[in-house]
Design a protein that fits this description.
By secondary structure, the chain is an alpha/beta fold. The protein is built from 10 helices and 11 strands. Helices cover 40% and strands 16% of the residues. The longest helix has 20 residues. The mean pLDDT is 96.
Length: 284
């Protein structure tokens, strides 16, 4: 029996519908959640993603702004632009779109974003709160992944989880979140030897490697939950990091690409923005 599909778009649409109701209540109190996404350069994939965030925010009532900068912007000038947004009381959420040009790839960029406005959860303070299982903003993609897992109604506690990828945006934070849920977590990466030996033990397999169809059916445990975070363009086709058609024959649940994790990431970012607005405006 083929795996059940974890339809991220359907789940995300329900989250967004609930957020739209919350935003209407906030607007009745003259509070309009405002999100500013900062994009440097014109990376085509980033532009598509930024536009989707912008359109989704507008659709549910968020005051969504995209600030675009040339990839020649100086490091000091970019930090100054972030500080302007920190000091603007009308702005509740700030997100710096990645990837950044090499001269801006410095932790200080994310440390400059106000902790209270860090709706992408990349400030070290928010990473620390995630580590300690305390309330704070978590990166949007890991939040979306956890929502997808909970949608299966399968108890996470005690499960073997394998995360492929160790980025600060996905791999590390979702590994910590799964630990906090009671999973036994293994993190694999580009230096891991005999990858299949690890993946075959996974009750939950989360793949964020950025390599098309890296995970084959023989690498997956029968009945596993497979979450594919990858988005890769192969010719005219968009594929994930998992060989979907073949892995689907072994897994119990699997996310499609596109339509799986992507919509959940955007919905989670919107939820963080609404939460930031509530906290900054002292709305309980």
């Amino acid at each position: 029996m083929p795996a059940k599909i974890l339809n991220g778009k359907e789940i995300a649409d329900k989250i967004l519908a609930q957020l739209e109701k919350e935003i209407k209540k906030l607007k009745a109190k003259n509070i309009v959640p405002k999100l500013v996404v900062m994009q440097v350069g014109n990376n085509p994939a980033s532009t598509i993603y930024v536009n989707k965030k912008h359109e989704t925010g507008k659709k549910i009532g968020i005051d969504s702004i995209v600030k675009r900068f040339p990839d020649t912007i100086k490091y000091e000038d970019f930090l100054a632009e972030i500080m302007k947004l920190n000091n603007d009381k009308s702005v509740h959420g700030i997100m710096v779109q990645t990837p950044l040009p090499e001269h801006l790839q410095h932790k200080q960029v994310f440390e400059t974003v106000s902790v209270e406005k860090d709706v992408d959860g990349l400030h070290p303070f928010n990473h620390g709160k995630n580590l300690l299982a305390k309330k704070g903003f978590k990166p949007a993609t890991p939040i979306g992944i956890l929502e997808l897992l909970k949608h299966t109604k399968i108890k996470l506690e005690g499960k073997n989880a394998v995360v492929i990828g160790r980025s600060n945006i996905v791999g590390k934070p979702i590994a910590i979140m799964l630990l906090n849920e009671g999973c036994t977590v293994t993190v694999c990466h580009s230096k891991t030897k005999n990858l299949g030996n690890h993946t075959k033990e996974a009750d939950i397999l989360i793949v964020a490697a950025g390599k098309p169809k890296l995970i084959k059916a023989e690498m997956v445990k029968k009945g596993a939950i497979v979450i594919d975070v990858g988005i890769n363009r192969v010719g005219k086709e968009i594929v994930g990091d998992v060989d979907f058609e073949n892995v689907r024959k072994k897994a119990a649940w699997i996310t499609p690409v596109p339509g799986g994790v992507g919509p959940m990431t955007i919905a989670s970012l919107m939820a963080n923005t609404v939460q930031a607005a509530k906290e900054q405006e002292n709305v309980l």
